[in-house]
Amino acid sequence: MDITTILGLLIGIGAVIISFLLEGGHLSSLVQGPALILIICDTFGATIVTTPFNQLKALPKLLNIVFTDIRLDFHQLIDLICDLAYKSRKNGLLSLENELPKIKDSFLKKALQLAIDGFETDKIKEILEIEMSYIEERHRAGAMFFQKLGGFSPTFGIIGTVLGLIHALSSIENSANMASSIASAFIATLWGVALANIIYLPISDKLKAKHQNEALYLDIILEGVLSLATGENPRVIRIKLMSFLLPGVKGRDNI
Question: Contact at 8 Å (CB) between 96 and 84?
Fold first, then answer.
């Protein structure tokens, strides 16, 4: 479970509710069924219109990524690549074929297989970069889905408010009911803006951040395997791969 995602959503939603209650409002006033139906359903409806069906099928997987803490151990990856480089220099590149069943990461396994099969480094780089570009496109599409939700939601909030005001002004002969109806109408705008800025857009940015983290992981694999394939010294490979990490992340850089 990704604690930061859960904590951020709880703080954001909780702050809105607590602020409303401190102002003397009632929690029941926030729960306006017609407004929520209009905003949520129309927001998803408009976004679905702009999204291919195969991307919609990936929505549960995207939510799982957002709420799951996927930790990529960069130091462990660098250690593994350097260990493979030592074995390659000692026993030859073909000896790494015995190591493939032990490797769980499919991208690393594919990269090593290309190197073992004798592909030139330029061809290995070309093949892996194509796969990386498709991975990036899938991640970009996922983040874009929630970004679209965040773009449509405030607009439908305003539409809900306009509809509520039309209803309120239609009962202008009863000033007490009209005031209550006008207040309720603006709840739609509140939900439209709140859902966009507390849920949809933060989730989009979260997906982008996780993609950047995975992209760095793949870059390290790409550079490491290319260096291994050319027979570079494992010590040089470690120095090169550690340079991908931020100073605070390098930690146990004991080269």
Answer: yes
* pLDDT of amino acid 236: 93
What secondary structure does DSSP assign to 67-89, as a single string? HS-----HHHHHHHHHHHHHHHH
| Cα(141)–Cα(55) distance, integer angstroms | 7
Is 229 exposed, middle or buried, given 0-12, 13-18 or 19+ CB atoms closer than 10 A? buried
Does the pTM surpass 0.85? The reply is: no
pLDDT band at 65 (very low <50, low <70, confident <90, very high): confident
Number of alpha carbons in the 13 Å side-chain half-sphere of residue 171:
13
For 240, which DSSP code?
A: H
Looking up tokens 């990386």, which residue turns up? Answer: 132
Q: Collapsing DSSP states into helix, strand and coil, what is residue 56? A: helix
State how far the Cα of 228 lies from the Cα of 93, in Å rounded to an integer.
Answer: 9
51 touches 45 (CB < 8 A): no
Specify the residue for token string 């990490």. Answer: 245
Residue with tokens 């790494």: 96
- Token look-up 């780089």 returns 125
Write out pLDDT tens, residues 143-198: 999 999 999 999 999 998 898 888 777 766 666 667 677 777 888 898 999 999 99
Alpha-carbon radius of gyration of the chain: 26
| Cβ-proximal residues to 69 (8 Å cutoff; 6+ apart), any chain | 1, 2, 3
